[in-house]
Amino acid sequence: MTSSFRLGYVPGVTPAKWARVWAERLPRTPLELIQVPAADGIGLLHSNTADAALVRLPIDRTGLHAIPLYVEQTVVVVPKDHVITAVEEATLDDLADELVLHAADDVLPWESALPGRVVAERPATTADAIALVAMGTGLLIVPQSLARLHHRKDLTYRPLLDAPASQVTLAWPEGDPTPLMEEFIGIVRGRTANSTRGATPKPEPKKPAPKKRTTQQPSQRRRPPNPRPRRGRR
User: Fold this and answer.
1) Strand pairing of 5-9 and 31-35?
2) Interval 32-57: pLDDT, tens
C-alpha cells in the first residue's frame, strides 16, 4: 500500500500511540494527521478532507459509522492556591459558590445548568477561558486532556466526580470500509498485526478414523479337532 490515510482529530485527543503502530505495520503508507476545532471534526468527513476522524460525542451520525473508544475524566481547572486544591476530588456541589466560566467551544454534554455562578460572557475558546482562570476570573470545567493541553504552571486541576463526561469516538463515512480503514480500525481496537477483522479459522480436515482390529471372541475361536480314540487290538 502506498497511498496515504488521512486522519482528523480534535483538540485534546492524541492519536500518537496509534500513529506509531501504523508506522510499524504500514511503513510505506503515510498517516496524515489533520487537527481541527472540535466543531469541525465531522465536517472533515462530509467534505472528504479526511478518511476518518477522532471526535467527541455527541455528533450527528447521519451518513457515518462510529466506534466509541473511551470516556475521559472531567476536571475543574483552578489556580494553584485555590481552596479546592485541598481535596483530591471535587463534586458539583463544591462549586456552588464559585464563578464558573463556560467556553463557547465547550465539549461537555451538559443536560442541565452548569454549577456555581456562571459568568455571563462566554470566552470564545477553551484557551481563552484558561487564561481567565489564571487571572482569577473564575473556574473552568473541561475534559482532563484539555486541561493538560493548556497546562500552565500557575494552574492545576481536580477530578470532578459527578460532572458529565466526554466520550471520544472514531467516525468514518458509511459504506464498505477500505482496506486502509480496516487497518486503522484494527489498530484502535488493539488487534495484532496477524489478526484479521471477522476472520474465522478454517476447520482442520477430518482425519480418517483408525481401522478397528477385528479380534475373534473366545466363543468364536475354532477349537482343534479332538483326536479319535484308538481301537484296541482284539
Assistant:
1) parallel
2) 999 999 999 999 999 999 999 999 99
